[in-house]
Specification:
The chain is α/β, with parallel strands linked by helices. It has nine helices and ten strands. α7 (142-152) links the parallel β3 (133-137) and β4.
Length: 275
């Protein structure tokens, strides 16, 4: 039974959004909607144009027998800038300040709308690179990693500081926390990551970068390659960061505990996006 164009456009858009970076052959859509190949091509042209105008990413068509269509999640610089400016205002709210100078982030990282956009922003950097998994450390980095992994269509793996019996055999490394100079331990299940995988590391917050560096070392134990590092927010650090090549969405410049003031600026994300 043939499908009307309006119905095809809605269903095709939904399917592409649910299968990011997956190469889908045109015959699949021809059979799915019982429509001519020319009609499917016209539909894809409409979706491609709309996505480009709305800053939703790229619809890429590949010619040939092995070709098809592929959705690459993304966001334009204007939308990204507006969202990040909103996040700077949210993160600078004085009510976020906790004892010890820590910042409360759970409401931001627990908001599905914010989290979805954070995932899109981070994933947009890596859509045209080979990525096999997204890695983070428990616990607050987990929702970010899940959102990024969803946008890239890959699994996410969780590095833990304490062994879980349900994880089976694990690989562990010791690392130095750059902010506290303490030796810590982290581990990852041997079944979580394939040898030689290409991995993106994400986290919610970074000071000295010791935790990120520990995950980087852990990748070497799996003969895995680091594709890139992105954090939701970085904080000012007086010493030398152990990881220097990273992307941050936000930058917490200063925290004044006495006056309950938090100064937040944009990170280097937009600069790297325009490169």
């Amino acid at each position: 039974m043939k499908t009307r164009r309006s119905d095809r456009l809605i269903d095709m858009t939904s399917y592409l959004l649910d299968h990011p970076r997956e190469l889908i052959s045109l015959p699949f859509f021809v059979k799915r909607y019982d429509s001519a190949k020319s009609s499917i091509s016209e539909d894809l042209a409409i979706i491609k144009r709309t996505f480009a105008v709305r800053g939703l990413g790229v619809i890429q068509t590949l010619p040939g027998a092995a070709g098809g269509v592929q959705y690459l999640p993304g966001v334009n610089s204007e939308i990204a800038g507006d969202f990040l400016k909103l996040m700077t205002l949210k993160l600078a709210e004085k009510e976020r300040l906790l004892p010890g100078g820590y910042l409360y982030l759970s409401d931001l990282l627990g908001n599905p709308l914010y989290l979805k956009m954070i995932g899109r922003l981070i994933a947009a950097q890596y859509v045209d690179q080979q990525v096999d998994a997204v890695m983070t450390v428990a616990t607050k980095g987990i929702p970010i990693a899940q959102s990024v992994a969803t946008c890239l269509g890959v699994p996410f793996v969780i590095v833990r500081r304490d062994a879980k019996i349900t994880e089976g055999a694990t690989v562990s490394v010791n690392y130095v926390s750059a902010s506290s100079s303490r030796i810590e331990k982290m581990e990852l299940s041997k079944r979580s990551l394939a040898e030689g995988a290409h991995v993106v590391i994400v986290d919610d917050f970074m000071k000295g970068g010791g935790t990120i560096h520990g995950m980087h070392d852990l990748l070497k134990e799996f003969s895995a390659s680091l594709v890139g590092i992105t954090v939701f927010a970085e904080a000012s650090f007086a010493g030398q960061r152990v990881e220097s090549d990273y992307t941050s969405l936000l930058n917490v410049v200063a925290v004044d505990t006495q006056n309950s003031e938090i100064k937040v600026e944009l990170g280097n994300y937009l600069d790297k996006l325009s490169d």
